[in-house]
Structure formats: structure tokens, C-alpha cells
UniProtKB/TrEMBL annotation:
Species this protein is from: Bracon brevicornis
Protein name as annotated: Uncharacterized protein
Length: 47
């Protein structure tokens, strides 16, 4: 489950019901890179 192997941000988001799923990505380029997270939530819970 998420409590044992997920990062703290995912634990917080799932534990409070803020999101349904998340996906992190890492894109490597020749001399730099891009890292980010994509969160999916219910549109009625957006602030």
C-alpha cells in the first residue's frame, strides 16, 4: 500500500483524499533533465 512505499507527498494526497492517482516522470536530455509529478483528482475537490 501507499503507506509503506510511497513518497510523503503521495501519502499526504491519498491519505486526505485529495487525489485518485499520481505519476512521476523524468525526462533526460543531453545536458539537463526535467522531473515532475502529475496528480489526478476529482474536479469538485479543486480549490
Amino acid at each position: 500500500g501507499y503507506k509503506n512505499n510511497a513518497p510523503r507527498i503521495a501519502q499526504s494526497a491519498f491519505g486526505t483524499g485529495l487525489c485518485r492517482s499520481y505519476k512521476s516522470f523524468n525526462i533526460g536530455y543531453h545536458c539537463t533533465g526535467l522531473w515532475g509529478c502529475y496528480f489526478v483528482c476529482d474536479k469538485m475537490q479543486l480549490e
